[in-house]
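R.M. (postdoc): so does anyone remember the format we settled on? I'll just put the structure tokens first.
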């Protein structure tokens, strides 16, 4: 199965049922090209500015193309201004609000995923964000056409109803991250296929991940935004301050405390 069935009638109904909604063509080709070119220019000029270069060995292709974490906090950089722009983009914010109510911006990330890059094992976003008592929601913007070959996302519709769990160890030959969450019994992953400019909105408890990029010459670049409902009372320290998408102002809520799903030794953080 390679598509997400867009029934019942409304996006909110689909989100409530499946935990994921695929919106086609939300960004136009010129916008996508601007995102792609701006981030490629930055990674070629200085990959350490917001890149998580510590995550992999230097001989890994992802050391050359590290994921960029929280670029919206760097207004001095073009990538930062662009990330903050999309954290406040009315098309994205309004759709997210339709799904979960009014939101704060919590995170921006950019993944390059060049050919031969490993994927990311199945996981749940709110394991990291720890928004409570609500949960985060992702807006995953495709910057390239993507499918199974170049490592597009696979999602497990319906898994958003499960609790956030402590991951087990992932296969390091397949995933650059270490945690793995298996789909609930009776549920299966659906391989997405997206065109550049499509946006996938999904629930923070939904299990999702991706396999390695096995294509010969196709990147699978993506700009990923996370929001938390304004009804959230706390979030992990890494995501503070939040962003008011209407004004651009910083917003602070309580910092999540306690051990999370893995117990007292777990401190949370980026993903």
């Amino acid at each position: 199965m390679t598509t997400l069935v867009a029934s019942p009638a409304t996006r909110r109904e689909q989100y409530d049922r499946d935990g994921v909604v695929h919106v086609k063509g939300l960004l136009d080709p010129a916008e996508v090209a601007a995102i792609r070119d701006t981030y490629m220019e930055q990674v070629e000029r200085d990959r350490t500015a917001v890149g998580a270069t510590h995550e992999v060995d230097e001989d890994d292709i992802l050391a050359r193309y590290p994921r960029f974490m929280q670029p919206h906090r760097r207004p001095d950089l073009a990538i930062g201004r662009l990330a903050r722009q999309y954290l406040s983009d009315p098309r994205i914010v309004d759709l997210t609000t339709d799904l979960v109510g009014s939101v704060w911006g919590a995170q921006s990330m950019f993944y390059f995923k060049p050919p031969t890059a490993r994927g990311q094992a199945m996981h749940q976003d709110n394991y990291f964000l720890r928004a409570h008592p609500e949960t985060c929601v992702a807006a995953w913007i495709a910057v390239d056409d993507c499918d199974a070959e170049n490592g597009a996302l696979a999602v497990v519709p319906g898994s958003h109803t499960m609790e956030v769990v402590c991951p087990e160890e992932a296969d390091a030959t397949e995933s650059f991250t270490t945690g793995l969450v298996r789909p609930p019994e009776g549920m299966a992953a659906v391989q997405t296929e997206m065109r550049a400019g499509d946006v996938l909105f999904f629930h923070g408890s939904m299990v999702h991940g991706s396999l390695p990029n096995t294509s010969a010459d196709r990147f699978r670049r993506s700009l990923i935004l996370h929001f938390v409902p304004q009804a959230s009372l706390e979030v992990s320290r890494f995501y503070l301050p939040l962003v008011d998408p209407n004004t651009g102002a910083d917003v602070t809520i309580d910092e999540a405390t306690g051990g999370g799903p893995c117990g007292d030794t777990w401190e949370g953080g980026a993903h």
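R.M.: ...and that's the designed sequence above, right after the tokens. Also worth knowing: The helical segments are 11-18, 29-45, 61-64, 78-87, 90-100, 126-129. The CA atoms of residues 45 and 63 lie 14 Å apart.
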